[in-house]
Amino acid sequence: MGETRKRGRKPKAPASTTETMDFQYTSASNATQTDYVAAQNDVFSAANDSVPTAAKNDANNPPPARRGRGRPRKSEAGHMEDTEPHAAASPERRPYQNGAVVLEPPPQPVAKWESVAARVVPAMDAVVKVFCVHTEPNYSLPWQRKRQYSSSSSGFIIGGKRVLTNAHSVEHYTQVKLKKRGSDTKYLATVLAIGTECDIGFLDVVAMLTVSDDEFWEGVSPVEFGDLPALQDAVTVVGYPIGGDTISVTSGVVSRIEILSYVHGSTELLGLQIDAAINSGNSGGPAFNDKGNCVGIAFQSLKHEDAENIGYVIPTPVIMHFIQDYEKNGAYTGFPILGVEWQKMENPDLRLAMGMKSDQKGVRIRRIEPTAPESHLLKPSDVILSFDGVKVANDGTGFSYLVSQKYTGDTALVKVLRDSKILEFDIKLETHKRLIPAHTSAKPPSYYIIAGFVFTAVTVPYLRSEYGKDYEFDAPVKLLDKHLHAMAESTDEQLVVISQVLVADINIGYEDIVNTQVLAFNGKPVKNLKSLANMVDNCNDEYLRFDLEYQQLILNFATQIVVLHAKAAKAATLDILTTHCISSAMSDDLKT
User: Which residues contact 371 (CB under 8 A, 6 or more apart)?
Assistant: First the structure.
């Protein structure tokens, strides 16, 4: 009789040397592993079938052992485990104890996400959790602030003992603390720069922090930056999202690379769209490529009923511009602009009328910003043919992006077509001075109060405070028109409005005036809030007269006026401030 196989317990597999990691990983699908195991079993079945028939049917060889009876028993993991040993169960098993055929299982292939994770793991120690206490200004009641609140987000360590995160993670910060992976110590951080210039409607871009405690930097290698990824390149987002306290890893691919319009079209910057999950708290965390290099900063996921798995990443070109801007100027200065509004030249008749030849392309200057430093060089109806040696397309594709690659104070060679002649100018580039700023650079809002009339300067945060996130639909049409189309005539020009009227006997009949622009005071135009406050405080006339813009569209030429007795108005102001618990009639910036 041939030797029979003894039935019994399945031999124990060798102890695994893989360590359990303290992060959550979201893979594309679990089917990959299942398919692999099935394919591996098929390989062994095919190998067994390849054994010579004589060896199988030898009289001295018994028939194969019967399959174990009963239902498969459950493993500790919860899946059904076959009790009969498999060839793939252990690399030490030999299918035939008395034969010469010994099958060694093929090496276990590493799944793609495991390979990526293995490269990312060394850089994960540089990913930190950011704790911030925010105290936002109250733009509608500018003499006070809103109730403070706390938030947590992600960041990562770069060279020079610095940490990068999203700007909104530390916006209006009161206190910022950082915690490293695996540590229970929170270190106080200092905010070096906040890049609030780039707001694409959801969030802004980058902030830079540092920690004075040397212990924070011990044992951590800074993250290295990689090149801009290509479409379908694998990306791994690392951070501290909601749902747990430990570090989390999600994977995906780059699904879109495009130029996004920031700050209502004044700046165009590069953006990446990925299909990896980006949840609340992931903002500020790095996105790694398959080499373990950072290719961007996660900053938002698109929440829409018609969209799934859409996340946005700030790519390395934008990040490096921010870092180099800070290193070059000692502060964040923003992305420069050329200072012109332009028109597409796609129509062939329009190009002929402008004197363009068949091989010439470009865009027509519609108007020029009065605050642009070189506004006297360029003229309306000039056709911009090239910018710094790069030709401009008729539809202007990428033109604003070319400008945004420069730094504030840089010069660029601009070639224009004027009256059928080609001219070249060295244009100095500066940041955009908007009549209604998109940000206030963390400064408290300015205000001035006289006789219960609250004057303030209009900003985008103010419009959001007054009319909510849909302010572009709900704010007064006159303000929106100036917000979208008006240009500042000087760098210190502001759009001053009466925000509200704190009701008192002195202002009877004026209670309904809300968010109405102030055009002039006692016949003199109002340039900004500080000039208005100075004119009122130094006024020796018997009456104070404010010319306001009339809100009806049909009567564009009409104004309404507010007239107050000067001495009575100034005397009533103190009582009104006391009634409303306001400490000062003007903000600190107007006192200097």
Answer: 339, 433, 487, 488, 489, 490, 491
Q: Where is average pLDDT lowest: 25-29, 147-151, 544-548? A: 25-29
> What are the residue numbers of the active site?
168, 199, 283
- Packing angle between helix 477-485 and helix 460-467, nearest 10 degrees? 150
Which CATH fold would you assign to the domain 340-429? Pdz3 Domain (2.30.42)
Q: What are the residues whose beta carbons fall under 8 Å from the beta carbon of 2, sequence distance 6 or more?
A: 58, 60, 61, 62, 98
Residue 110 buriedness (CB in 10 A; 0-12 / 13-18 / 19+): exposed
Domain ranges for the chain, please list them.
124-217, 233-329, 340-429, 447-590
- Under CATH, which architecture does the 233-329 domain have? Beta Barrel (2.40)
One fold for both 233-329 and 447-590? Answer: no
How far is 487 from 124, CA to CA, in rounded Å? Answer: 46
Read off the pLDDT band of 450 (50, 70, 90).
very high
Q: pLDDT tens digits, residue range 233-250?
A: 999 999 998 878 889 888
- Nearest in space to 123 (alpha carbons), one of 249, 251, 223, 250: 223
pLDDT tens for 251-280 read 889 998 888 765 444 567 888 888 887 778
| Rounded-to-integer distance, Cα 127 and Cα 180, Å | 7
Beta strands 24-26 and 248-262: pairing type? parallel
Task: Write phi, then psi, for 176 (nearest 5 degrees).
Answer: -125, 130
**What pLDDT was estimated at residue 237?**
92
Would you say the pTM of this structure is higher than 0.85?
Answer: no
From 36-40, 134-138, 247-251, the region with the lowest mean pLDDT: 36-40
Q: Give the Å distances, CA to CA, from 26 to 30, 227, 288.
A: 10, 24, 15
CA distance 120 to 132: 26
Helix, strand, coil percentages (3-state) for the chain, rounded to 5, are: 20, 30, 50
Reduce the DSSP state of residue 446 to 3 states and report it. coil
Q: Is the pLDDT of residue 231 over 70?
A: yes
